[in-house]
Amino acid sequence: MVKVSVVGAKGRMGSHVVAAVNGADDMELALTLDAGDDLTRIDRSNTDVVVEFTVPSVSLGNVLTLIAQGVDVVVGTTGWTDEKLAQVREAIANGPRPSDQKVFIAPNFAISAVLADYFATKAARYFESAEVIELHHPNKVDAPSGTAIHTAHGIAQARKDAGLGEVPDNTETDGGSRGQVVDGIHVHAVRLRGLNAHEEVLFGNAGEQLTIRADSFDRGSFMPGVLLAVRKLAGDAPTGLTVGLDNFLDL
Known about the structure:
Oligomer: single chain
Largest sheet: 6 strands, parallel
CATH topology of the largest domain: Rossmann fold
Radius of gyration: 19 Å
CATH architecture of the largest domain: 3-Layer(aba) Sandwich
Number of helices: 6
CATH class of the largest domain: Alpha Beta
Number of strands: 11
């Protein structure tokens, strides 16, 4: 049995993780912690893998503390930058388990979203234009989403590898209506009551368009990915920091 602790256990996502762990035949729930609780209660004597689902403003500090405690960590909180990831790698290198610590961060745990991201990187080299639209509920605190940023980076790298130039855009605007530019790719964020988590990737050539869309209608859609990540960290996942569920899907 894999002993799993959950940080952010009372949150919208954390409560689903608690239910998913309780429903898994190969896992047992160890500790459930939330805002204000002492993370140093979690250590290798009571926990094999921690699942951290909180908010971007506290997630980095939580992860660094958990690394110092020597436990492996699955992170679902978004808002990660290259600078924050570098701090995680440094913490692992200087932590109590530099040779076998495992930390996993996923921009998205929905299988549909991970596959859409993967398909987008495969399609990007064949199209002159590309844009990303992400749509979420209005309670989401970051924009654009970590998933959309990850998708844009993947598209940009695929275009670079294919020798493509800049995406054509002669629009003149100073009002921000063209979205945030991530690696040369315009990313648009929609916040609308009634939505959960959705992403569209639009590709265009003269006379044709390809749309790749992933829809998660309920937070339960993320749980198979979370449990997969927990099992991988308890098993054969590589040591160090891994980013992206695609690394565990045999793509």
